[in-house]
Amino acid sequence: MLKPFALISDDDWRMYFEVNVLSGVRLAKHSMPAMLDREWGRIIFVSIESAVNNPADMIHYGTTKTAMLAVGNGLATLTKGTGVTVNSVLCGPTYSDGAAQAVEGLAQ
Description:
Number of domains: 1
Number of strands: 2
Number of helices: 3
CATH superfamily: NAD(P)-binding Rossmann-like Domain
Helix content: 55-70%
Low-confidence stretches: none
Shape: elongated
Strand order of the largest sheet: 1-2
Distance between the termini: 15 Å
CATH topology: Rossmann fold
Mean pLDDT: 93
Largest sheet: 2 strands, parallel
């Protein structure tokens, strides 16, 4: 995941957009029509502080998290005045296998 900007391939960019942005877009497109028909529903995007504080060695990751916030904000505007709400939760980092590997890489 940690990668200098110049070494981030187009495939890396595409994969992060697929996982972090388009997955939420697709799920919202699938579920929002029924929510609007019922006049009730909740869509919650879970992002991370990297969306607003993009790390220099993870620009591809942080950029997709920013894009996720933008999608959530746009959908919140789109559903204004309906019974459907769209929110984004901005979490701090969590300890995961990926985070552990990143910390180990930094330590070396």
